[in-house]
């Protein structure tokens, strides 16, 4: 009887510890309370982060890319995820969110209700975004058109429907620090911030392990296309021998040095990169040229 009671207590304690360990994490509100967002700066953050590439309607161009009604589907080994409505609509979008709510989502993948977001939302990269950039982005998002479009449910099977387990995933894969290190001038450091934080380039260009985490030993070395159609290219200097001028031109127009054009999801990315200041496109090119060559 005593052994049975001890086992029950042990299991209950382990369950409580696991529940605590996997709980969603939030930012310190004090880090955001005094920040004043500037929409003009937030527009740069918006384009650098590629928000329209996921949250606008598929095929949207021009001003339609600013209607962030969500709905696009993104296939993965775990199911299909649908981008949510992040327009200022107060019911179906994020019109009721504070700067801190946005920070919790971007830095920790935590919803205002205290639930884990799936890492199809690239918070593993956005975790490096500065508080001021988040405040500026929040200010810009409030200026965009509201869309009363309900979110689509993700198409997932068990056990991936159990969000609590994402606490363990975050413990494994949410890492501080930068992937590319060493002495950097201001331009290269800006490029690293754009690529590894806001632009989340590795989310597509780096292969993943069985649990969906990035294989950091093969950073930017290419990966299978989650759609099952082809591969995402290796953009390290081992395979991509473009000059910085070639890269800047590609980020601006989508044209390669061989006069090919960006296609698929990269066309959306280029549409966003083209809106950045030229200095930012140059910084991003400098970062790509500094990547470790990986065959």
Q: Count the strands?
A: 5
End-to-end gap: 61 Å
Order of helices and strands: HHHEEHHHEHHHEEHHH
The level of helicity is 25-40%
Count of the separate structural domains: 2
Shape: globular
Major sheet: order of its strands? 1-2-3
Structural class: mainly alpha
Number of helices: 12
- Gyration radius from CA atoms, angstroms: 20 Å
Main beta sheet: strand number and arrangement?
3 strands, antiparallel
Mean pLDDT: 90
- Which percent band covers the strand fraction? under 5%
Q: Could you name the ranges where pLDDT drops below 50 across 5 or more consecutive residues?
A: 5-17
Describe the structure.
Helices cover 39% and strands 5% of the residues. The chain has 295 residues and is mostly helical. Helix 8 packs across helix 12. About 4% of the residues have low confidence.
Walk me through the topology.
Elements lengths: L1 H20 L17 H10 L2 H5 L17 E4 L2 E4 L16 H10 L14 H4 L4 H11 L13 E2 L9 H8 L12 H13 L3 H4 L17 E2 L6 E2 L11 H10 L11 H9 L4 H12 L6
Antiparallel strand pairs: 1-2, 2-3, 4-5
Summarize it.
By secondary structure, this protein is mainly alpha-helical. The protein has helices at residues 2-21, 39-48, 51-55, 99-108, 123-126, 131-141, 166-173, 186-198, 202-205, 244-253, 265-273, 278-289; strands at 73-76, 79-82, 155-156, 223-224, 231-232.
Features:
single chain, 295 residues, mainly alpha, three-stranded antiparallel sheet, two-stranded antiparallel sheet, 12 helices, 5 strands
